[in-house]
Design a protein that fits this description.
The protein is an all-alpha fold and 270 residues long. It has helices spanning 5-32, 36-66, 71-98, 131-146, 150-162, 164-172, 179-195, 199-207, 213-237, 244-255, 265-269. The two termini are 18 Å apart. One fe (ii) ion (FE2) binds next to loops. The site of one fe (ii) ion has 5 residues, from loops.
C-alpha cells in the first residue's frame, strides 16, 4: 500500500536521508578546504538567517493572536521564535569572538536573512550577492503557488525549514580541530537538537493525510528540486568549497540515488 502512513513516511524520509548524504559532501568539502574568509562568511550569513527565522515565527505569533487562535498555538510560535533567537545569538557570539570584536565585513549580511512572511525572498536578499540562496526561497515560494494541492503546499512549506536539520546535524559532527570548530560544532549540535523536532516530525504528521498518489509524486518531485537547490545554496554560503564540476557531479549523484544516505530523518520519525 503505497499511500499507507508508514510507507509515505518511509518514502519521504528516504529521500531526505539521501539528501543528508549529499549534503555531507558539501560540509566535508568546507571542513577540508577551510579558510578564515569561509569561516566568517558562513557563520555571519547563518546568523542573519536565524534572525530572519525568528522574525517569521514572530509574525506567525501576531497573526495567530489577531485571529484568536488557540492560546497553545500562539505559545508555540512564541517558543519557536525564542529558539531561533538562541541560534542567532550563539552564532553572533562566535563571530564576535572570531573577529576579536571588530566589525564583520560580510557585505550586506543582514539582507541574507530577509524573508517575507510567506517564506519568500525579501528585497534585501539580493540575487546579485547570493543567487543560489535567492533562487532557493523563490523556488519554494513558486512551488507553493503552482501546486493545486493544499497537502503538497504544506509539505513544501515545512520542508523549507525542516530540511535545515541536515546542515546543522552534519556541522555538529565535524571534528573540533581548533577553538573555532570547537565552538561551532558545540553550538551546531544544540541547533540540530532543536531542528530535529521541526522537519522529521512534520513528515510523520503529513504522512498520515496524503490525499492521492498524484499528490505524493508531486511532493517528491518538488522536494527533490528544492534539495538540489539547497546543495547549491549551502555551497555558496561556504564560498564554494566544491567547484562547479564537483557540485554538478554531486547533484547528478543525488538525482541518480548514487550517494550514501545518512539516517537522520528516518531515524527521528520512526
Ligand atoms: Fe534555527
Ligand atoms: Fe528552526
Amino acid at each position: 500500500m503505497r499511500l499507507s502512513a508508514a510507507n509515505v513516511q518511509e518514502e519521504l524520509s528516504n529521500l531526505m536521508d539521501l539528501y543528508t548524504g549529499a549534503m555531507s559532501r558539501v560540509v566535508t568539502a568546507y571542513a577540508e578546504r577551510r579558510t578564515r574568509e569561509r569561516d566568517i562568511n558562513w557563520v555571519a550569513l547563518q546568523a542573519t538567517k536565524e534572525f530572519g527565522a525568528m522574525r517569521l515565527h514572530t509574525w506567525a505569533m501576531w497573526q495567530k493572536a489577531r485571529a484568536m487562535d488557540e492560546l497553545n498555538s500562539i505559545r508555540k510560535s512564541c517558543e519557536d521564535a525564542f529558539e531561533e533567537a538562541e541560534h542567532y545569538w550563539g552564532l553572533m557570539k562566535i563571530l564576535d569572538w572570531y573577529l576579536e570584536g571588530k566589525p564583520c565585513e560580510v557585505k550586506e549580511m543582514w539582507g541574507y536573512g530577509d524573508f517575507t512572511d510567506s517564506n519568500g525572498p525579501g528585497p534585501g536578499m539580493k540575487a546579485s550577492l547570493w543567487p543560489e540562496s535567492q533562487r532557493y526561497f523563490a523556488l519554494a515560494q513558486e512551488q507553493q503557488k503552482i501546486t493545486a494541492s493544499p497537502w503538497v503546499r504544506e509539505v513544501v512549506k515545512t520542508n523549507v525549514e525542516g530540511a535545515a536539520v541536515a546542515f546543522h546535524h552534519l556541522l555538529g559532527l565535524l571534528p573540533a580541530t581548533d577553538e573555532f570548530m570547537k565552538r561551532v560544532t558545540e553550538h551546531e549540535r544544540s541547533i540540530a537538537d532543536d531542528e530535529r523536532h521541526h522537519g522529521p516530525q512534520m513528515l510523520r504528521q503529513l504522512a498520515k493525510s496524503v490525499p492521492s498518489e498524484k499528490d505524493l509524486d508531486q511532493a517528491e518531485q518538488m522536494i527533490t528540486e528544492l534539495r538540489v537547490q539547497e546543495l547549491r545554496q549551502r555551497n555558496e554560503q561556504f564560498l564554494h568549497p566544491l567547484n562547479s564540476s564537483e557540485l554538478k557531479q554531486l547533484e547528478q549523484d543525488f538525482l541518480n540515488k548514487k550517494v550514501q544516505p545518512i539516517a537522520l530523518f528516518g531515524a527521528v520519525a520512526a
